[in-house]
Write a structure and sequence with these properties.
The complex is a heterodimer of chains A (254) and B (389). Chain A has 254 residues and is an alpha/beta fold. Helices cover 29% and strands 25% of the residues of chain A. Chain A contains seven helices and ten strands. A six-stranded mixed β-sheet of chain A has the order 6-7-8-3-9-10. In chain A, strand 4 and strand 5 form a beta hairpin. The longest helix of chain A has 16 residues. In chain A, 51% of the residues are buried. By secondary structure, chain B is an alpha+beta fold. Helices cover 54% and strands 17% of the residues of chain B. In chain B, helix 1 packs across helix 12, helix 2 crosses helix 9 and helix 2 crosses helix 12. The chains are: A alpha/beta (254), B alpha+beta (389). The interface between A and B is medium-sized, with 41 and 26 residues.
Chain lengths: 254, 389
């Protein structure tokens, strides 16, 4: 996706919300080159004196353009896996290659640049900066680029149009509904045109209607803009939107 | 960077109450600091702004012991001496306002305003004064305060020279130099000497000397003192600045105390700013983690914290200086000059003091943010964003 690709119809983000009957699980998984490859990955934390293995010899390949859901009970390691793929953490052992980058061998600075370039984050609780307007929140990741101010603002506005919030650009988060806040967060995630969208319970704080809108938007980003999406969720309805659903239990994929 | 700074500064809007109270607290501390520094500056100004080409000769032991009047004539003959004026401290009190303190000097009439030419008096006033033995020239601040006008007849009470002394107000002077008091009362030494008790006649307090060449001041001072080495009364001759400093040395403990208090005030200001910044950082740990997650590096987060603190410092500095400057210069300063002009002839906030206070506010805010910024930069992204998963 390029910035110009972000131009979207006015009803973008809502169009597919009316089609919950679509079950993409039945569709064949996309056939592309692997963009995420985890080989025998283990992640162990030391809490107090006891080591705690959260991911245990995990192998996973996700292809470019996939929309995958990751489910599992609390404590199963979903968020840890998401953090590893997003470059927020490193594996204790094994190899994690994301968008051609070996996460385990990268410095903190390199990981920060990797996240800025390749990863778009969508959190459960939106995590927008309350003192910034919608368009300023979306513009935030672009401050790490060398783009001129006018170009940054233009791209942020385009991203907000993609998520259907062109009429809320100058609103502060407190002036938006939960669903709208999450859309702003999605615009912030896509504004840098990242390789992968990492979603951690993106509908967890939303009502059903808003959740469906967000899921429709994610589906659109996957189908129309070819974004690879990895989504952690407890919500079976959300998982149904993904082309592949994986289950994690006690640090292992089932 | 400017954009990041502006974003960081907007964090101050999150809690208006906290921001306003922090700025108010820091500003009050800054105002107190500015006033203390102004006291110290004003005190030192008396010596800093002293005339470079003026010497003072006093009794070698102490300035309260008198010199024989004839010494002035001897000094006049020393090569390099341009003009001489002797004088006595009179110690006048106003019977109707006994608590009013002002410098009252009986001076050598013909030469005084040549040696002290920064006390500017009009030729008409000066001529009137010279023609009237009971005439007095009064500083404009004192005259305004007491409501004295040229032509008024007043009576002062002598403390060193007891009795009631009649004077005619002949003129008003205005100082053209910051080190000169605008509240002095100047009258003829002859009037004092003629009416003084026998044992106090022909005695003078000290001698002001104008030299022709500033670079020879030390040499001339030594020559004067050498001249009186073999006499009954020895002298100590020094530059006007040194004389003022020797007078101020008696208050050195007080000045040191003021210095200490001003440092304590800065410490309080540091704590006020540090507390607010630390609270803000604690509350925004998750936001910093989000910034890190979307690609910002630890130094960006540290910059955010320091920039927010700097914005707080700038606002505190602006408010503190913005209040202190007019408050001191238009109210406190005038009151002090009118009531304590002998010690603080010029009590105003200097631009350098205001600039120093502003820079200190900014610097303290930056210092106060150092630890919180380091903590914010070290925040564990995964811990801060942790959810059981």
């Amino acid at each position: 996706m390029t910035p110009s690709d972000l131009d979207a119809p006015p009803d973008a983000g809502k169009a597919e919300a009316t089609a919950p009957e679509q079950n993409r699980k039945s569709a064949a998984p996309p056939k592309g080159k692997p963009i995420i490859e985890l080989v025998n990955v283990t992640k162990t934390y030391v809490r107090g004196k006891e080591p705690l293995t959260v991911l245990d010899g995990l192998n996973l390949t996700i292809e470019e353009g996939a929309f995958e859901a990751l489910m599992g009970p609390s404590g199963s390691g979903k968020s840890t896996l998401l953090n590893l793929i997003a470059g927020l953490d490193r594996p204790t052992s094994g190899k994690a290659v994301v968008a051609g980058n070996d996460i385990g061998s990268m410095s903190d600075g390199a990981l920060a640049k990797f996240r800025a370039r390749h990863i778009g984050f969508i959190f459960q609780s939106y995590n927008l900066m309350p003192v910034l307007t919608a368009v300023e929140n979306v513009e935030l990741p672009l401050l790490l680029t060398k783009l001129p101010a006018a170009e940054r603002r233009k791209r942020a506005q385009t991203a907000l149009r993609v998520v259907g919030l062109e009429d809320r650009m100058d609103h502060y988060p407190r002036q938006l509904s939960g669903g709208q806040e999450q859309r702003v967060a999605i615009a912030r995630a896509i504004v840098t045109d990242p390789t992968i969208l990492v979603c951690d319970e993106p509908t967890g704080d939303l009502d059903r209607k808003s959740a469906d809108d967000i899921l429709a938007l994610l589906t659109k980003l996957n189908t129309d803009f070819k974004k690879t999406i990895l989504m952690v969720t407890h919500d079976p309805a959300a998982a149904e939107r993904a082309t592949i659903t994986r289950h994690l239990n006690k640090g292992k994929l089932e | 960077m400017i954009k990041l700074f502006l974003i960081a500064a907007r964090n101050l809007k999150r809690s208006w109450f906290r921001t306003i109270f922090t700025i108010a607290g820091a500003a009050v501390a800054l105002i107190a600091f500015i006033m203390l520094r102004t006291v110290l500056w004003s005190w030192n100004a008396v010596s800093e702004y002293a005339a470079q080409d003026r010497l003072a000769t006093r009794h070698k032991v102490t300035m309260i012991m008198p010199l024989p009047k004839r010494y002035a004539e001897d000094i006049r003959a020393v090569p390099g001496v341009k003009q001489v004026a002797f004088m006595n401290w009179f110690g006048a009190k106003i019977p109707t306002a006994p608590d009013e303190f002002f410098a009252s000097l009986a001076v050598e009439s013909n030469t005084f305003f040549d040696v002290w030419d920064e006390m500017v008096v009009s030729p008409e006033d000066k001529a009137r004064w010279l023609a009237d033995k009971k005439g007095a020239i009064v500083g404009h601040v004192l005259a305004k305060k007491m409501g004295w006008k040229v032509g008024d007849k007043i009576v002062l009470e002598g403390t060193i020279y007891p009795g009631d002394w009649e004077f005619n107000i002949s003129g008003i002077y205005k100082a053209s130099r910051k080190s000169v008091d605008d509240s002095e009362f100047i009258f003829h030494w002859d009037y004092l000497n003629d009416s003084a008790p026998a044992e106090m006649k022909d005695q003078i307090g000290f001698i002001s000397i104008r030299v022709t060449d500033t670079s020879r001041s030390a040499e001339i001072a030594q020559a004067i003192d050498r001249m009186f080495d073999e006499r009954d009364v020895q002298t100590a001759t020094m530059s006007e600045r040194a004389m003022n400093l020797s007078f101020m040395a008696g208050f050195s403990a007080l000045l040191t105390a003021l210095d200490v208090v001003s440092i304590i005030i800065l410490g309080i200001m540091l704590l006020i700013l540090g507390n607010t910044i630390a609270m803000g950082v604690r509350e925004r740990t998750k936001e910093y983690a989000v910034l890190r997650a979307i690609g910002f590096e630890p130094w960006h987060v540290r910059f955010f914290v320091i920039a927010e603190a700097a914005a707080l410092g700038i606002l505190s500095g602006a408010v503190g200086v913005g209040i202190a400057y007019p408050f001191v210069n238009h109210f406190v300063g005038r009151a002090i000059e009118e009531n304590m002009g002998a010690m603080f002839p010029y009590f105003r906030v200097e631009p350098t003091t205001a600039a120093l206070a502003f820079v200190i506010a900014l610097g303290l805010a930056a210092v106060a943010s150092l630890l919180p910024s380091i903590q914010a930069g070290r925040v564990s992204v995964t811990d801060a964003l942790r959810r059981v998963g």
